[in-house]
Amino acid sequence: MYDYLIVGAGLFGSVFAYEARLRGKHCLVIDKRAHIGGNVYTEPIEGINVHKYGAHIFHTNSKAIWDYVNQFVEFNRYTNAPVANYKGELYNLPFNMNTFNKLWGVITPDEAKQKIGEQRAEAGVSEPKNLEEQAISLVGTDIYEKLVKGYTEKQWGRSARDLPAFIIKRLPVRFTYDNNYFNDQYQGIPKGGYNVIVDKMLEGTEVRLQVDFFEQREELVKSAKKIVFTGMIDQYYDYRYGVLEYRSLQFETKVLSQTDNYQGNAVVNYTDRETPYTRVIEHKHFEFGTQAGTVITEEYPAEWKPGLEPYYPINDEKNNKIYKQYKALADQESDVIFGGRLGGYKYYDMHQVIAEALTAVERELGK
Ligand code: FDA
């Protein structure tokens, strides 16, 4: 009899399994995919670690979480500095003095602030009723038109005027010449890829791949005292209160052997409405690769329907209300722990999901 059946070998499940093993517990980890790691999995193609489920850059402000992941692997000095391509014009992201200089020729922060202020005043939005008005009220029309509108409309599959204002609470604007996307103190990519971390976490724990919990539910439940469930919470309860919605993505990966450097940057966002993908990732740049060829992935946003990968929970009023009902059931369970992005119906960055798993382990098994 296992102490824990852990459904899902993503970061939540792997951290839980590792910590439980350290505390002498006997776990079985299952995953319906053919590999461990969940969405942080990287697949080696032509000697390049390809981020199979989208670009993953580790960043955190927590020294404790940084130390935690560094016990498994050393991180490189990668700093995320995406570039936006708007119809062939290139701009630095996040919006900063380099962006403003390119857009308007301004040199000083005061000039940039004045320009944004003028555009906001001209638009005259006092109470934003939709995403378009919200974005213009925050950063003015030029940035909105060239860098926000098309990207956001592709991401959500509808017009910015039909999207609620709350999706954009703030748009980070930085009045320094600093292209570092994140403000966090610690940032990098694990040397050798994320698999190194997850492999070490699951070393010594029994793992069964290509096993879907729902296809063998009865036997699996009987095999363990408790369950840690990181799949979709609505599916666990047989969708009795309805289906929780997501946005999905499709990835098109291409091996390019004619060039060793396709776009000169790991992440390029295509911010016009016409280009069907939102981003192109050139994976080798995450690890300063020097391979002869290169591998790129185009990222296409997609409407989610059952059967597709659920990536981004749509935390609007309707879905949050449904989730609350599932959460109430989950809170009554004494032998099931729900965790991770699907179990909690919440977007988590990697450092957040690791912190959440560590808290769950401590609550369950002590420090
Ligand atoms: P995850 O989804 O990784 O793991 C759950 C596992 O459960 C999966 O392997 C799944 O197959 C398995 N499973 C589900 N149902 C099952 C069933 N019925 N039976 C068996 N197995 C089942 N974060 C960050 O910090 N920096 C970044 O740059 C990015 N970038 C990024 C890009 C994109 C496109 C996305 C979608 C997400 C990010 N993230 C990120 C977030 C990051 O991916 C996330 O924090 C972790 O992967 C979450 O780990 P979980 O364990 O919660 O889920």
UniProtKB/TrEMBL annotation:
Residues 146-347 form the UDP-galactopyranose mutase C-terminal domain. Pfam families: GLF (PF03275), NAD_binding_8 (PF13450). Keywords: FAD, Flavoprotein, Isomerase. GO terms for molecular function: flavin adenine dinucleotide binding; UDP-galactopyranose mutase activity. Transmembrane segments: none annotated. GO terms for cellular component: cytosol. Its cofactor is FAD. The keyword Isomerase applies. Belongs to the UDP-galactopyranose/dTDP-fucopyranose mutase family. This is UDP-galactopyranose mutase.
